[in-house]
Amino acid sequence: MYYLENNRLKVEIQEPGSFYKGSRFDWTGFITQITLDGNINYCVPERLEEGKGTGGLGLCNEFGIDMPIGYDAIEVDELFPKVGVGLLKKDQDEAYDFFKTYEVFPSEVKIEKSANSITFETTNYSPMGYGYHLFKEVEIVDNQLIINYRLENTGDHPIYTNEYSHNFIGINNELISEHYQLKMPRMKEIDVAVGSISRSQDRLTWPLTPDGDFYAHIDWEVKNGTYNWDVFHDKIGAGVRELSEFRPSKIALWGTNHVVCPEVFIDIKLKPNEIKSWKRVYEFYQDKEV
Q: InterPro entries annotated for this entry (predicted)?
């Protein structure tokens, strides 16, 4: 396990292949706890029930949830790349399913750490000619957590995929209730597919603790703004906002009784030898007046 720490934040990062060994989430930069000012914790697991879910916890990102690289071009028992994980085996002639556990042939990861940052580098090349090099830096500056990504297509074929961070947020382990609010200033419309969410202009709330999952698609307005989303707990007086500046390809919201997860996606299209860079910025804060 690795730690980044300054006078505001303490960030807990798992070594690739130790805490999480699944086929869904990126093994690099897997953040399992973030503590602000020594008394506010933000990260919770995907599921509280033992053996349920896909192993998500804290801030963990995923490449290709619905755009797996090269999956449709290969046959059963052949391998396809999952960025940040390694090569996965296609074991059935069926559509890719991120809930499914695939056999993993993990990538080797080069790690370098300094006082306020840690970097991960991993390269993979599939037998069918799909290849990538991923560089990821996790850095803390005052009360901000910054994750820098650089993905290079090192293979023979174009890469069409996407990436998002599954932000499993539960402030000080408080259940979702009327004390939580999620503000999304660029939201135009919300399509709630599962569960119940209350809306008032750009603010989403939960009058009651959910008794099951909730899921929604967000219709997003491309315009300037100081943040994309902001989760705040009015009783604790603490929150986190995401300040990433890239143009999202889609926005989703998932959660259940103990966790709320705003998800901001970015599309990735790379010809061989092309590189794409982007970053995610999170700001953690306390409202001293609450």
A: GH-type_carb-bd
